[in-house]
Amino acid sequence: MTDPTASDPTAPDPGSVPASDAPEAAAEPEITPLTQPAEGVPPVLRTPAEFDEAAARLAAGEGPVALDTERASGFRYSGRAYLVQIRRRGSGSFLIDPIDHPDALGGVIAALDGPQWVLHAADQDLPCLRELGFVCADLFDTELGGRLLGLPRVNLAAMVAHHLGLGLVKGHGAADWSRRPLPEDWLNYAALDVEVLVELRDAVAADLVAAGKDEWAAEEFEHVRTKPEPPPRVDRWRRTSSLHTVKSTRALAIVRELWSSREELAIERDIAPGRVLPDSAIVSAAQASPATAEDLTRLPVFGGHRQRRLARRWFGAIDRARRLADADLPPRNAGGAGLPAVNRWANRNPEAAQRLSATRTALAELSERVGTPVENLLQPDLMRQICWDGVGEPVTLDAITERLTRGGARRWQRELCTPLMFTAFTAPPEPDAPADAEPAS
């Protein structure tokens, strides 16, 4: 798990009712520190024989399987798993190093193809598990369950504290997990991430049933399990930090060429792009447009020992951009895809602005009523797109349902949001109600 805990999990969860209005408010449970696994830190398994033994033990276990991975985000280009943590009742915990023998994991993969997987923030871990060949047949995402329940904090440590009264030792989530050997305290941290994950699943599942949201959760978990990988972004170089400070199209071309050259080198060396060359250096070079490689090395960052060795490469990218015909320069704005900024809707599409304003208000009221964040009730991009496009005339419940279905909204979301959007879309226009004055979603 790569996201370190951002706040103290032992702090009381803020409530929605003032203490003065809750005379019998239950006290927060006392937090018991969980500093190491009950059975100790398991050994790191690296060989095919060790994998096969783990597979046999996992197959003999019972119930759901807790899973987690550790990657090296910020250090490596790839999103591969450098450690896989597994725990199952009756089997124990396992730390698997898949790097040297990824093709020898067949027994473990087979043992886990069938039982329910318990993950926390499954979107982060499923891609790298799939890359190794693991197949998830049934998913329970404890973080997503916490969001549906409306918990104020849904990181693993906060939820373990809230539901189980245990305080997890955290602190190495953002470490370089490609390092070998892995330090003992890192392994302790990794093992703790699955130590009580099944127990957390049981507590969250019980709360979902009590809240009448268990069917919502089942649909959401299945959506996460089965949704395809998103297509690659177009013009990813436009996400370069501080790109807005680059004014000319020729300078934008320099950014594009430097970004592409950096990307190639980052992939080749499996190093995070920002560690190959910072975005700030790319923007600085684009703005300065140095005439020679020597001029380039006088700029910040490029004068360092490592960057001086790559000066020819970087200057070659700059020179390619300088030689481009005007017709081949990138436009200042990406254009094409995407909706206009919301604060421009009133002028460009006033009917859409009205639909958006009314829908946002209704969603905020629904969120308050059911205790689930707006963004989980309906994906914000889908909501904005439907408000912009409309659903034709006359507006009907079936037309809204069809558009929500086509956009990927789950059944429970459609049941809640279709009548809400019908009312919002058919309400009389409200004078002087700019869309950008509504709550953000």
UniProtKB/TrEMBL annotation:
SUPFAM superfamilies reported for this sequence: HRDC-like (SSF47819), Ribonuclease H-like (SSF53098)
Pfam family, one: HRDC
GO MF annotation terms: 3'-5' exonuclease activity; nucleic acid binding; nucleotide binding
Top-level lineage group: Bacteria
HRDC domain ranges (all copies): 248-328
Segments of skewed composition (Low complexity): 1-30
Gene Ontology biological process terms, A to Z: nucleobase-containing compound metabolic process
PROSITE patterns with a match to the protein in the record: HRDC
Residue ranges of the region described as Disordered: 1-44
PANTHER family recorded: RIBONUCLEASE D (PTHR47649:SF1)
Protein name per UniProt: Ribonuclease D
Organism whose genome encodes this protein: Williamsia herbipolensis
